[in-house]
C-alpha cells in the first residue's frame, strides 16, 4: 500500500523505473535491431529494387517485378521441388531414427555412455569435412559402391547421376543430424516420471503399450520442437549441395536448393534484388509449414 501511494505521490518514480528497464534491455535491443530487424528491412528494400553492383552501387525501383519473375523462373521451381523432396524425406527419417536411438540408450544397455559419444561424434564434426568424406565414399570406386557390389546390389554414380545425387546428401545428413535430436529426445525421456510406467505395468501394459500410450504422448511437445527445427534446417540446405556440385547444383540441377539458388543469384549473377525476393519466398514457405506443424502437434499448448 505504501508503494502504491508513493508512486501516486511521485510520478517520476514510474519514469525512472521504466528507464531502468529499458537500459537493461538496451544491449538485446541493439543486437536484435542491428542483426535482425535492419537486415530484414534492407532485404525488403532490395526485393523492390534492381541493384547495379558494377561501377558503384545503384538502385532502381521496379516494384514487385522481382516477385512476379519467381513464377516464370523454371530454376526456382526446380529448387523448390528438390528442397521439398529433401525435407519430406530427411525430417521424418531423422526424427524417427533419433527417437529409436534415444529409447535404446534410455533402456539401460551396457556401455551407454560410450554409445552416446559414438553416436554424437558426427554432430560435432565440421559439415564441410563430412561432405568431403562422403564424396570419397560416394566415388564410383568408393567404399559404398564396393559394399553394394559385395552384397550383390546395383552400384551408382552417386555424384554424377541426377537420380541419386540428392539422395546421397539425404543419407549423409540423416546420419549426421539424427544424433543431435537423439540427445534432445534422451533428455525428455529421462524427465518422464517412472511412476507412470510402474502404474501401467501393474495394470498389465506391456512395453509396446507403455511406449504408445505414455512415452509418445508425453514426447509430443519435444517432437514438435524436433520437427520444427528439422524443417527450418533442411530448408536451408546449402553447404553440402554446394560442395557436392561445385556450386552449380548439378548434375542437371539435381542438387539445386533454394539457398544455393540465392547464392547463385547474388554472387554469380549479381542480382541482389532477385535474391532477396527468393529469400522471402523461402521464408514464407518455412513459416507456413511451421504453422501447419504447430496445428498438427498442438504446439499452442507448449
TrEMBL record:
Topology relative to the membrane: Multi-pass membrane protein
Gene Ontology biological process terms from the UniProt entry: transmembrane transport
Transmembrane regions listed in the UniProt entry: 21-45, 86-105, 117-138, 164-188, 218-238, 272-292
Domain ABC transmembrane type-1: 80-293
Intracellular or extracellular location(s): Cell membrane
Primary subcellular site in the record, as a coarse category: membrane
PROSITE patterns recorded: ABC_TM1
Keywords: Cell membrane, Membrane, Transmembrane, Transmembrane helix, Transport
Cellular component GO terms held in the UniProt record: plasma membrane
CDD domains: TM_PBP2 (cd06261)
Domain of life: Bacteria
Similarity comment text for this entry: Belongs to the binding-protein-dependent transport system permease family.
Protein name in the entry: Sugar ABC transporter permease
Species of the source: Nostoc edaphicum CCNP1411
Amino acid at each position: 500500500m505504501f508503494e502504491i501511494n508513493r508512486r501516486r505521490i511521485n510520478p517520476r518514480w514510474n519514469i525512472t523505473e521504466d528507464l531502468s528497464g529499458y537500459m537493461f534491455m538496451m544491449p538485446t535491443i541493439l543486437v536484435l535491431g542491428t542483426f535482425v530487424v535492419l537486415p530484414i528491412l534492407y532485404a525488403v528494400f532490395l526485393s523492390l529494387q534492381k541493384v547495379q553492383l558494377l561501377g558503384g552501387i545503384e538502385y532502381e525501383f521496379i516494384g514487385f517485378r522481382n516477385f512476379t519473375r519467381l513464377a516464370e523462373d523454371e530454376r526456382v521451381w526446380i529448387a523448390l521441388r528438390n528442397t521439398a523432396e529433401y525435407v519430406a524425406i530427411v525430417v521424418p527419417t531423422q526424427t524417427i531414427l533419433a527417437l529409436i536411438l534415444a529409447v535404446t540408450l534410455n533402456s539401460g544397455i551396457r556401455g551407454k555412455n560410450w554409445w552416446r559419444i559414438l553416436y554424437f561424434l558426427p554432430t560435432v564434426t565440421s559439415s564441410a569435412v563430412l561432405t568431403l568424406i562422403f564424396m570419397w565414399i560416394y566415388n564410383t570406386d568408393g567404399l559404398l559402391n564396393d559394399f553394394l557390389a559385395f552384397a550383390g546390389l546395383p552400384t551408382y554414380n552417386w555424384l554424377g547421376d541426377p537420380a541419386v545425387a540428392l539422395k546421397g546428401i539425404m543419407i549423409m545428413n540423416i546420419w549426421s543430424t539424427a544424433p543431435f535430436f537423439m540427445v534432445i529426445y534422451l533428455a525428455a525421456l529421462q524427465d518422464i516420471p517412472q511412476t507412470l510406467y510402474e502404474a501401467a505395468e501393474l495394470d498389465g501394459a506391456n512395453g509396446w503399450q507403455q511406449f504408445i500410450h505414455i512415452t509418445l504422448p508425453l514426447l509430443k511437445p519435444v517432437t514438435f520442437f524436433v520437427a520444427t527445427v528439422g524443417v527450418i534446417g533442411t530448408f536451408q540446405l546449402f553447404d553440402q549441395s554446394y560442395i557436392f556440385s561445385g556450386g552449380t547444383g548439378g548434375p542437371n540441377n539435381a542438387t539445386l536448393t533454394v539457398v544455393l539458388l540465392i547464392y547463385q543469384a547474388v554472387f554469380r549473377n549479381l542480382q541482389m534484388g532477385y535474391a532477396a525476393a527468393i529469400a522471402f519466398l523461402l521464408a514464407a514457405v518455412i513459416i507456413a509449414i511451421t504453422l501447419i506443424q504447430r496445428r498438427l502437434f498442438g504446439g499452442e499448448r507448449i
